[in-house]
Specification:
The complex is a heterodimer. Chain A has helices spanning about 15-25, 40-50, and strands at about 5, 30-35, 55-60, 65-70. Chain A is of the alpha+beta class. Chain A has a four-stranded mixed beta sheet, with helices on one face. Classes of the chains: A alpha+beta, B mainly alpha.
């Protein structure tokens, strides 16, 4: 079970800040980021890609979006 | 994955450039010099039009503010991004908007106008810009130490509609009580007979252009405060490239239209007191950073359903009223009699908020 990072409801720049902090302490593997708006989704993806992570599955469920991010 | 062109690097650059072209054109069409668009100034003028303050030269119900919110609302609905949400420390956001406005009016402009003043050759805006970056920089330090206003919650759609509806109400007032030549009042609205409040582009053009800008800004997440924040916090230049594009485009259009007048003295709606140009914008920058967006961005967020951003906007409008009623706002003659006190109190309040609202569990 991958670790879930819930940044729903946080305003800028906190979603990115929280996710970056999390991947700093994770060398590789998979994480799931939970966001609730397009802007946070775009920002998180832009930020993790600049850190050498890539985006796996992006899945909307109602108001929430699950982004799977991974690094080998 | 659905790709949003405007969220790409070239997307944000084109949106910045379009705003940079349209703002000086709004000046040509009648808006005040170096003030084609200024969110702080225009909200201040709205406060004046409603009689919340009675500073005679700055009373006009600016359609641009209305257009920004409605353009963003339109984009949010078209692209299914409208999300009614609220509840992230609204009263604190009100205060941040309130003091952001006080700081902005000591400098005489929001971050957009800072860029437009620079692009028009106003050298006094250099210290304003540095102050803005300094204030945003302090804000990033608070974020690094866990500052957070907490999470918002999804809520009834109507909560997200409140500010757009208020804007539609404002538009109705502007149509019912239009400006009348030589008349300071029409119905419930106040108008300026001279000064910046008496200069405005035709209603339909102002609305049309601002709806386009609101639409594009919602798609691209354009944010002038975020530009400097992301650079300082993440070494990221995405939003910054939009801001640079705005400046370059506005500069070129100003040169073409003969609106570029380099210098420090006698710049339109500006004063030359460098320290307070810097400090005013430092306060504004800190407040924008703590609230998560520049004044323009707060309007676009409010348009896509963010009730907390809407509260920030109302805080700015009320802050403008206090600014003029209490003698905090500057004028071309210099800073207001109590402007210094306003900035100091604002900084104290922002630091208090920054130090005390820290989440340990983040």
């Amino acid at each position: 079970m991958e670790k879930k990072i819930d940044v729903r409801g946080l305003s800028c720049p906190q979603p990115v800040l929280v996710v970056l902090q999390e991947i700093k302490t994770t060398d590789k593997g998979r994480l799931i980021v939970l966001v609730d708006n397009e802007t946070a989704k775009e920002n998180v993806i832009r930020a993790i890609e600049s850190q050498g992570w890539r985006v796996g599955e992006v899945k909307w469920e109602g108001l929430d979006c699950q982004i799977t991010i991974e690094k080998d | 994955m659905n790709k949003n062109y405007f969220s790409t690097r070239w997307g944000i650059i084109s949106v910045g450039a379009i705003i940079g072209i349209l703002a000086p054109i709004l000046q040509k069409l009648g808006n005040p010099a170096n003030m084609g668009i200024c969110v702080a100034c225009f909200e201040r003028d709205i406060a004046g039009a409603l009689g919340l303050h009675r500073a005679a030269p700055v009373q006009y119900l600016r359609p641009e503010i209305i257009g920004f919110v409605l353009g963003s609302l339109l984009a949010a609905y078209l692209f299914k991004e409208f999300r009614a949400r609220a509840g992230s420390a609204p009263i604190v956001r009100f205060l941040l908007g309130f003091f952001a406005m006080i700081g902005a009016l000591v400098f005489l402009g929001c971050p957009w106008r800072t860029l437009l003043r620079l692009a028009g050759g106003d050298g006094n805006a250099i210290l304003g810009l540095l102050g803005l970056i300094f204030g945003v920089g302090i804000g990033t330090l608070f974020f690094k130490h866990g500052y957070s206003l907490g999470r918002s919650q999804p809520t009834y759609p109507v909560v997200g509609w409140i500010l757009p509806l208020i804007m539609i109400g404002f538009l109705a007032l502007r149509i019912i009580f239009p400006p009348v030549e030589g008349q300071e009042i029409n119905g419930v609205l106040f108008y300026s007979l001279k000064g910046p409040g008496s200069m405005y582009a035709p209603l339909a053009l102002s609305l049309f252009i601002s709806v386009i800008i609101g639409f594009l800004a919602q798609r691209s997440r354009f944010c002038t405060m975020g530009a400097f924040r992301d650079l300082l916090l993440f070494r990221q230049t995405h939003l910054l490239s939009g801001v640079v594009a705005l400046f370059v485009a506005a500069f070129i259009v100003n040169v073409v239209l003969g609106q570029f007048h380099p210098g420090f003295q006698n710049q339109p709606i500006a004063h030359t007191i460098g320290l307070w140009n810097f400090a005013g914008m430092a306060l504004a920058g800190l407040a924008f950073a703590l609230a998560g967006g520049c004044p323009g961005r707060q309007l676009f967020l409010a348009g896509e359903g963010d009730g907390d951003a809407a509260i920030f906007v109302l805080g700015m409008i009320i802050g403008a009223a206090f600014s003029h009623n209490f003698g905090l706002a500057s004028s071309p003659q210099g800073i207001g009699p109590h402007g210094v006190a306003g900035v100091i109190i604002g900084l104290v309040v922002c630091f208090f908020i920054g130090f005390t609202m820290r989440s340990k569990t983040r």
